[in-house]
Design brief:
With about 80 residues, this protein is mainly alpha-helical. The protein contains 5 helices and no strands. The protein has a single domain, classed as Flavinator of succinate dehydrogenase (DNA polymerase, domain 1, Orthogonal Bundle). About 15% of the residues are buried.
């Protein structure tokens, strides 16, 4: 079983290397600053978000496409989080 600390490091690494710099900054920055405070359920949801394509996530964040219900609350917090 993976420890929480290792899981956070793994998610940070994945979030920092998305492919689109804006997503690296948004998602990587969020998990760096707020990852320790995320619940296990939120970490699991964040991990699922990392599987989504950069273009889709960028379209959701910029409002070009509606955010799927499953990610709505999490992405709302990510977008609203202080940088």
């Amino acid at each position: 079983m993976e420890s929480r600390e290792i899981r956070l490091r793994r998610l940070k690494l994945r979030a920092d290397r998305r492919g689109i710099k804006e997503m690296d900054i948004l998602l990587g920055g969020y998990v760096t600053r707020h990852g320790a405070a995320l619940s296990e359920a939120d970490l699991t949801l964040f991990e699922a978000l990392l599987v989504e394509g950069d273009q889709e996530v960028l379209a959701w964040v910029t409002g070009l496409q509606p955010v799927p219900e499953a990610y709505r609350a999490l992405l709302g917090r990510i977008i609203a989080a202080p940088r």
